[in-house]
C-alpha cells in the first residue's frame, strides 16, 4: 500500500488534520512531532502527558470521555500493523507510553547508531535529492533529542560529502569557508532543479533541411532512385507500383552486402560528399541493401564537424562508405554504440554523447534524425592552419576572451584560424572561476619606475602536497610593470629567502633599486628578521589595515588569478591535484605574457623587458609530448621517444 493510500485524517471540528499513520521506527520521529501538535491543538495533550489526571469526583465522566476521545485519535493515526500493540491499553497515556517505549531511541548506543547512519550516508545517482536531504535532517533532529547534536557546519560538510560523484564540480566551486546550512540546502535544491530541467531538454540527430512535405506533392530537388526522375521519393514512384511483384525495399538500411549471408553496419555518404574522401578503395560487388544496385566505395575515415551550443566538435567516422547514388548521408547508430557512444532523445530532439559530454544534437525530419553537421576539409595535403580561438584559450591557461583578443595584437607567433567561433563556452572556466564578487581591477596610484613599489603575499597551505613536497608559494609583483615572480615553499618561514632572490634579480636586470614594498599583516612579514632586513636595505614597508585585503588588491587579485587558471588547467586535462605547483608556475608564466588592463593592453613581459613576448612555443598544459631518449647505451631496438605530459618550462632555459 502506498503512503498516499495510507494517509489518514484526524478529524477536528469542521476541518481536519492530515497525518501519515505510524508504520514503525522509520517514520516514528516525524509522526511524534505531528501528533504532539495535533493533540495539543485539540487540548488532549495534557491528558497524554499525564499533567491532567482523573479527578476523584468525576461524576459526569468528563475526564473519562475526553481520555477516550484522545485514545481514539491515537488509534486513527497509526497503521493496522500497530493496532495490536495498543489494543489492550485502557487510557491514552498508556497507549502513548507503549509506542514511545517501542520505537523511541535512547542511550549512547542509539546516538552512535544514528551518527553512523548520518556520516556514512551516500546519495545514489538520479535519486530524489530533496527526499535525501529530508532523511539527513531527520537524523540530525534525532541526535538533538538524544543530546548528541551535530552542528550546522558539520551537517553542511556531511551533506556535501553525501552528494553523488556527478556533483563534484558543484562541490569544488563552493566557498567552504562560509557554509550556512539553509543557504547551502537552497543552492543544492536549485542546482538539482537546474539539472532536471536540462535533462528533459537534452536531445537528437542529423543535418537540418527544409519543412516536411505531404505525400503526393512535387518535391523540389529530390530525385527518385527507382526511375531517376525529380519530384518524388522511391516509395511514391508509380513505376514501382506497376512492378509490385519485383519491387525493391523503399527504405535505405545501414548495411553493406559482401555476397554472404552476413550484414555489417557502416556510415554511408552520397556523391555530394565525395570531396571528404582523401583516398578510398573499391569494394568488389558491394551493394547497399534496400537501395538497389548502387555502387559502394569504401574509405577508411571521414572527418565532419558537429555543432553543439555554438561550439564545433570534430568527429572522425571509421569505415565510411561512399555511395554516389544515395540521396542522403546516413550514420550507423549500431557503430556508434559499438564505439562507446550513447544516444537518446525526447520528442523530435536527439543527442549523441561520449560519457557525460554531448557531441552532437539534431531534430527529427521525415522519420529520420538529422544532425547539425558541416564537412571538415581534409588536411592531409594542405598547409597547417592556425589553432581555433578555443584551443588558444586552453593553451594560454584559460585566458579570458578580452585578453585573448588583445594578445593577438601584441604578440608574434599566435596563428589563429579566423573562421573559428570566438563566442565559445569553456566548462572548466565556469567550474574554476565562478565567484560572487571580483577584486579591484586596477590601482588608484600610478607608478613611474620599476622597483618603485613591490607588492607580495603568500598563499597556502594547499590541502594536497605538491609533487615537489611544497604547500605554500609567495608572489612578488612590480606595481609599475605588473610582472610577477613566485617561489614555492614547504613553510612560510622561507619567504625572506625568496624575497632576497627576487630583489637581487630585479636590481641586477634593471639596475633599479627596490624602494618600497607592500604586504598584509602575515606573521612571516612582520617578524623581526624580515622587518630588520628591510630596514637594513632602506626599503619602506607598507602594511595593510587589519581585515582589509582590498588594500593589497594587486597581490590578492594575482593569487585568485593564478589559482583559478591552475584549477582550470587541471580540470581540463583531468590531472591529479599534486601537480598544482607546476600548474601555478605555468599560470604565472602565461600571466606575464598576457595583456592587462592596467597597462592599457600591454603585457607585463613587454613593460618589464621592453619587447613583445613570442608565444609560438606555448602548448596546452597537460598535453601529450614525446621526449627523445638520449641514453648512449640504450638497446638499438628500443623506442627512441617516450610519451610524457607537458607541465611548463624549465627555470633558466627554454627547455620544456
Automatic annotation (TrEMBL):
Keywords per UniProt: ATP-binding, DNA integration, DNA recombination, DNA-directed DNA polymerase, Endonuclease, Hydrolase, Magnesium, Metal-binding, mRNA processing, Nuclease, Nucleotide-binding, Nucleotidyltransferase, Protease, RNA-binding, RNA-directed DNA polymerase, Transferase, Transposition, Viral release from host cell, Virion maturation, Zinc, Zinc-finger
GO biological process terms held by the UniProt record: DNA integration; DNA recombination; mRNA processing; proteolysis; transposition
Cytoplasm found in the keyword field: no
Example GO molecular function: endonuclease activity
SUPFAM superfamilies (UniProt xref): Retrovirus zinc finger-like domains (SSF57756), Ribonuclease H-like (SSF53098)
Domain annotation CCHC-type: ranges: 224-238
InterPro entries tied to this protein: GAG-pre-integrase_dom (IPR025724), Integrase_cat-core (IPR001584), PolX-like_BBD (IPR054722), Retrotran_Ty1/copia-like (IPR039537), RNaseH-like_sf (IPR012337), RNaseH_sf (IPR036397), Znf_CCHC (IPR001878), Znf_CCHC_sf (IPR036875)
PROSITE patterns reported for this sequence: INTEGRASE, ZF_CCHC
Gene Ontology cellular-component terms listed: nucleus
Signal peptide start-end: none
Top-level taxon of origin: Eukaryota
SMART domains, per database record: ZnF_C2HC (SM00343)
Catalytic activity: DNA(n) + a 2'-deoxyribonucleoside 5'-triphosphate = DNA(n+1) + diphosphate
Record-annotated Integrase catalytic domain positions: 434-612
Functional description taken from the UniProt entry: The aspartyl protease (PR) mediates the proteolytic cleavages of the Gag and Gag-Pol polyproteins after assembly of the VLP.
Protein name: Integrase catalytic domain-containing protein
Protein source organism: Phanerochaete carnosa (strain HHB-10118-sp) (White-rot fungus)
UniProt lineage: Eukaryota, Fungi, Dikarya, Basidiomycota, Agaricomycotina
Amino acid at each position: 500500500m502506498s503512503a498516499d493510500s495510507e494517509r489518514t485524517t484526524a478529524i477536528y471540528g469542521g476541518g481536519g488534520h492530515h497525518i501519515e499513520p505510524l508504520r514503525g521506527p522509520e517514520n516514528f520521529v516525524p509522526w511524534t512531532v505531528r501528533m504532539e501538535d495535533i493533540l495539543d491543538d485539540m487540548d488532549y495533550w495534557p491528558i497524554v502527558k499525564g499533567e491532567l489526571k482523573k479527578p476523584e469526583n468525576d461524576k459526569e465522566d468528563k475526564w473519562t470521555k475526553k481520555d477516550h476521545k484522545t485514545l481514539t485519535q491515537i488509534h486513527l493515526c497509526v497503521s493496522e500493523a500497530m493496532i495490536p500493540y495498543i489494543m489492550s491499553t485502557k487510557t491514552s497515556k498508556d497507549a502513548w507510553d507503549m509506542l514511545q517505549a517501542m520505537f523511541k531511541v535512547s542511550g549512547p548506543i542509539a546516538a552512535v547508531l544514528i551518527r553512523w547512519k548520518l556520516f556514512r550516508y551516500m546519495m545514489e545517482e538520479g535519486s530524489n535529492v530533496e527526499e535525501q536531504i529530508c532523511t539527513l535532517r531527520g537524523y540530525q533532529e534525532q541526535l538533538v533529542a538524544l543530546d548528541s547534536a551535530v552542528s550546522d557546519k558539520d551537517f553542511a560538510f556531511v551533506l556535501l560529502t553525501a552528494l553523488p560523484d556527478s556533483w563534484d564540480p558543484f562541490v569544488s566551486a563552493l566557498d567552504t569557508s562560509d557554509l550556512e546550512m539553509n543557504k547551502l540546502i537552497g543552492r543544492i535544491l536549485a542546482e538539482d532543479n537546474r539539472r532536471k530541467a536540462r535533462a528533459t531538454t537534452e536531445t537528437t540527430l542529423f543535418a537540418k533541411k527544409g519543412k516536411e512535405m505531404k505525400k503526393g506533392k512535387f518535391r523540389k530537388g529530390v530525385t527518385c532512385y527507382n526511375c531517376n526522375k525529380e519530384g518524388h521519393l522511391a516509395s511514391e514512384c508509380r513505376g514501382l507500383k506497376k512492378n509490385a511483384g519485383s519491387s525493391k525495399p523503399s527504405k535505405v538500411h545501414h548495411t553493406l552486402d559482401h555476397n554472404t549471408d552476413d550484414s555489417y553496419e557502416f556510415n554511408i555518404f552520397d556523391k555530394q560528399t565525395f570531396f571528404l574522401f582523401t583516398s578510398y578503395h573499391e569494394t568488389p560487388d558491394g551493394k547497399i541493401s534496400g537501395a538497389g544496385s548502387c555502387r559502394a566505395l569504401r574509405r577508411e575515415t571521414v572527418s565532419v564537424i558537429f555543432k553543439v551550443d555554438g561550439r564545433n566538435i570534430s568527429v572522425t567516422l571509421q569505415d565510411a562508405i561512399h555511395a554516389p547514388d544515395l540521396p542522403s548521408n546516413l550514420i550507423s547508430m549500431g557503430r556508434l554504440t559499438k564505439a562507446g557512444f550513447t544516444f537518446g532523445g525526447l520528442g523530435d530532439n536527439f543527442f549523441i554523447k561520449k560519457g557525460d559530454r554531448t557531441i552532437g544534437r539534431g531534430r527529427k525530419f521525415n522519420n529520420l534524425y538529422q544532425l547539425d553537421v558541416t564537412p571538415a576539409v581534409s588536411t592531409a595535403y594542405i598547409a597547417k592552419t592556425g589553432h581555433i580561438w578555443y584551443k588558444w584559450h586552453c593553451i594560454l591557461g584559460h585566458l579570458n576572451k578580452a585578453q585573448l583578443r588583445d594578445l593577438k595584437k601584441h604578440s608574434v607567433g599566435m596563428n589563429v584560424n579566423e573562421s573559428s567561433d570566438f563566442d565559445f563556452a569553456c566548462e572548466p572556466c565556469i567550474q574554476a572561476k565562478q565567484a560572487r564578487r571580483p577584486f579591484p581591477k586596477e590601482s588608484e596610484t600610478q607608478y613611474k619606475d620599476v622597483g618603485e613599489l613591490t607588492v607580495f603575499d603568500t598563499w597556502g597551505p594547499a590541502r594536497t602536497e605538491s609533487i615537489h613536497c611544497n604547500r605554500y608559494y609567495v608572489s612578488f609583483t612590480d606595481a609599475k610593470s605588473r610582472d610577477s615572480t613566485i617561489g614555492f615553499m614547504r613553510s612560510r618561514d622561507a619567504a625572506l629567502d625568496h624575497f632576497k632572490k627576487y630583489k637581487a634579480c630585479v636590481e641586477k636586470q634593471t639596475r633599479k633599486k627596490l624602494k618600497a614594498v607592500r604586504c598584509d599583516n602575515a606573521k612571516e612579514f612582520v617578524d623581526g628578521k624580515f622587518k630588520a632586513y628591510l630596514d637594513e636595505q632602506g626599503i619602506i614597508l607598507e602594511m595593510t589595515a587589519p581585515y582589509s585585503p582590498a588594500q593589497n588588491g594587486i597581490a590578492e587579485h594575482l593569487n585568485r588569478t593564478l589559482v583559478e587558471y591552475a584549477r582550470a588547467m587541471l580540470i581540463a586535462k583531468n590531472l591529479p591535484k599534486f601537480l598544482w605547483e607546476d600548474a601555478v608556475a605555468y599560470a604565472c608564466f602565461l600571466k606575464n605574457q598576457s595583456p592587462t588592463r592596467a597597462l592599457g593592453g600591454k603585457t607585463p613581459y613587454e613593460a618589464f623587458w621592453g619587447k613583445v613576448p613570442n608565444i609560438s612555443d606555448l602548448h596546452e598544459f597537460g598535453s601529450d609530448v614525446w621526449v627523445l631518449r638520449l641514453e648512449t647505451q640504450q638497446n638499438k631496438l628500443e623506442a627512441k621517444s617516450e610519451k610524457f605530459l607537458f607541465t611548463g618550462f624549465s627555470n633558466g632555459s627554454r627547455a620544456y
